[in-house]
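Before the break, one more example. Copy the sequence into your notebook; we will annotate it together after we see the structure.
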Amino acid sequence: MSDDLSRLDELVVRLLRQRRSPSYRRLLLRGMPEGVGIAGLRVLRTVERIAAGGSTPTVKDVAVDHAIEQSTASRAVQAMTAAGLITKSTCGDDQRKARLDLTEAGRDALAQATANRQELLAQITSGWHDDDLARLIELMGRLTEGYSAELAARR
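Here is what the structure looks like once it is written out:
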């Protein structure tokens, strides 16, 4: 079991390292508007996810989600606002908060990034049997849920 866990640990580390590589970043950012980088995409995804969950996304949400200072989150949001990908407006229930919404261009940028990622996955898994891909999806789901549960328990 120890050897299996060592091998799994190394594979997880390698996958994370590959996703941080310059070539992966170039692929992911292909077709993005000028000035949108990985950090910008993360901001857009956070706003999208929180809004899809029925909540009102704010700068504080971005800060918490990214584990960064609110001032850093504010600058990141401002950059996406300047790029025309997010709008900021006053929250109806609390005038001190700024509500964040994706613009059409912001939704398009996220759709392009998703298409770029899925194109890479399609290339990587071409030739795989459908059962192998389904099993990988199931196991990756279990692994990520396990990480989420374990890390939440340790907060």
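The first strand starts at residue 86 and ends at 90. The chain is about 70% helix and 5% strand. Try to locate both features in your own notes.
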